[in-house]
Amino acid sequence: MPETHETAVYTHGHHESVLRSHTWRTAANSAAYLLGSLEPGMRVLDIGCGPGTITADLAALVPDGWVTGADRAPGILERARATAEGRGLANVDFEVADVHALDHPDGTFDVVHAHQVLQHVGDPVGALREMVRVTRPGGLIAVRDADYAAMTWYPAVPGLDDWLDLYRRVARANGGEPDTGRRLRSWALAAGLSDVTATSGTWTYATSEERAWWSGLWADRTLASAYADRAVEGGHATPEELRAASEAWREWGRQEDGWFAVLHGEILCRKPA
Fold first, then answer.
1. 251 with 157: CB under 8 angstroms?
2. Spatial distance between the Cα atoms of 45 and 93, rounded to a whole number of angstroms
3. What pLDDT does residue 23 have?
4. SS3 of the chain: helix, strand, coil, percent, to 5
5. Radius of gyration of the chain, Cα coordinates, nearest whole angstrom
6. Upstream peptide bond of 40 is cis (omega within 30 degrees of 0)
7. Which among 82, 134, 137 has a CA at the least distance from the CA of 113?
8. What is residue 14's DSSP assignment?
């Protein structure tokens, strides 16, 4: 196994407000650009699987194949295993792994997938090279990441601008890149890939239920997650400033005409045969 050399700190942690978002994710709402390329017998690696909801969907879509979910946090894998077991899936397993140093031989997988991962790693080009290494010749590398600077909303609640500026500063101080979506194609080319299809996708929150859910989880995350701790400990914000940002989220959530869109960059790359 190559030497592990992750240098970034995961900004969000696994507070309940974070998992509220992660467990909402499905293959349909978070990996639609990949689904048409899946075949029943494929072997798939899902990097940064978190609580396993996307992983379980991928396993259901390759019923004669196998899916391995990988995450750096051992504790969250128990949640992922429970997700798979609850759905009666027998073609999935989970492992602790660092995307910079995967414990698999060259060419092991037909598809290597990573959703919202590269924005949190210290060497995204190196991570992509490692993903390519464990992909078989002719196989696929699929990556999707949000782009925070491209997030947009209405009405223009002033405190949300402050929240976005703060989040981006904290994420970069932790060694990550919050505006990763726009960089994915460039990083893929730097990793030596040439067959790269770049697309984009969005999450949009506009109904009263969607606004309440999205604003509530960010209001809570801003006060109680690892992100909040790192914002204060790193000198990026005071507790009072975090409370103001949290209230800005709740204020936006109360707006009957509120609308919020999260832009994602997506790349589907084929490894040379």
1. yes
2. 10
3. 81
4. 45, 25, 35
5. 18
6. no
7. 134
8. T
